[in-house]
Structure formats: structure tokens, C-alpha cells
Fold this sequence. Notes:
single chain, 320 residues, mainly alpha, Farnesyl Diphosphate Synthase, two-stranded antiparallel ribbon, 16 helices
Amino acid sequence: MAAVEGASIATMTEPPLALEEVRAFIDPRLDAALAPSPDASPRLLESIRYALLAPGKRLRPALALWAAEAVAPVGMARETAWEAAAAAAIAVEMIHAYSLVHDDLPAMDDDDLRRGRPTCHRAFDEATAILCGDALQALAFTTLAAGMPAATATRSVLVLAQASGPDSLVGGQADDLAVERGWQPDLLSAPADEQVRWLERVHRRKTGELFRAAVALGGLAVQATDERLALLDTYARHFGLAFQIADDLLDAEGNEAVVGKRVGKDAERGKLTFPTVAGHEASRRRAGDLAASARSATDTLGPAAAPLGRLASWIVDRDH
């Protein structure tokens, strides 16, 4: 816990360095969550470690930890809030890692680079990657159910399950494949405003729901009131869509060496994205407006939510 002891809201660094602080806190806990069992397949465990401990921003754990900090009861120390939300942060990162492993598979987005390294199915094989994702999903719920207080464990498991299922993450991925697979051919000739509404629906589910779950779980970990949980949810709704629009722009304009994954693939596959439908400048403006709305929610929460507000500003200008 040395990475957060003695820190204060007033001395919080800007997001890139603040995320390093999150990584220093959460990465050893992710590692510990993968302690080997005599019954675990060594190759499967190796693939799980490869996927979960890969270098990354740790945005979702950061959201869980900073949300807990933002709505913690008066007098609760920052390090206490982070410890309370640790299981939530680990669980949501496990779900995120599983989703990346499966999204990268040849049957899905068929990517060979993730976070600057070969994707899981390239580093191992397709069968191992599928099983790796399956195992990470189960581990997430095991971690959450075992690590959250009894008073909030059931609600927390429900939040994460709903964010991961057919109405949310998985359903959003299915719809994201619709145009390139020809499942919804009419979308390609639909008016631009209809395409934008469809994109927002996809992104809010595929990407945004897990962000919403992260802040909700952080709030539940410190037993926040429903009113403050609602403010966190408002923040996450705007943040999630801003993030995905910025991600679309990175795919269209980014440098592969900096981004850490193949860029330009959306255009190659004929996917609908915000830049292709609304244009690059309009997409940037939309992302900026959403980030401003997210910051407004953190202003209402007060100074303890400042890290969340700064993250919303940074996320739309990032280069990776």
C-alpha cells in the first residue's frame, strides 16, 4: 500500500502518472489472484497470466478505486477506500482481459497485436485463448464474491454479471460485428443520424457498460448512498462513450507503435465508426462534450472525485 499512503487530493498527479500509481497498487494483487493450484493446467495458467498481467492503462481498476475514493464516507482514508474496492478492481479487470482475448480471436476481430504484444491466440493457440477467456470470466466472479463484504457481495455480482452479458458487453460485441458480417445490411445505406444512434447503442453496451460497472462496484465497496451511486453512473455513461469515440479516432489516425495494436483495421473491414459516419472533427467535438458532461458529475461529487474528472479530460486527448 506504500504507493498510495500519504497521498492527497491536492497532490494528485495528472492521469498518466496517477494511473502508474494505480498499477503499482493493483498489479501485485492481480498477480496474487492467480496463485497456482495443483489442479490448474500449467499452460492455461500461463495464458491467463499473459492476458491479465499484460501492460495496460488499468483504466477499469482505476475507475473502481477512484470511485470508491470519491464517495467514501467522511473520515475514511484514501488507502482504506482503495483496499475496500480492491476485489472489485481485480474482478472488473479480469472481465476486461477476458473480453480482449475473445475479441482478438480470428472468428471475431482477428487481431494479432494487443498492448504491444502478440495477442493471446498468437502467443499460444486458439483453443488455449478461448479457455483462457472462459477461465478469466469465472475467476472474476469468484474474486468478487469472495472479496466483497457480505452486505454488498450479491448486488456487486449482479452488477458485473449484467455488465458482461447479452444485454451489455457480449451483446454490444455481437452488434459491432453486424455490418462487416452482413447481418444488418440496411445500416450501410441508412441516414447518418440513424447510423450515429446505432453506434452509440453499440458503444454504450460493448465498452460503456463495463465502465459503469467499475464505478458502481467501487461505490458499493464503500457502501455509498444511492444518490452518490447515481452521480457515479452519470459520470461513467458520458465517460464510456467519450472513450470509445476517442478509440475510433485512434484507430483512424493513431500510430501503431504508440497505440500498441494494429490501427486502420476498422476502415479495412468497412466497419461503421464515429469518424467514418460523423467525420473526424465532429467526432472530436462530441468526445469533448461528453468529457465535459462527465466532469460536471464529478464537480457535484466534490473534491474527492477530482481524479475521475481529470481522467475524463485526458481520455479524449490520449495517443494510446
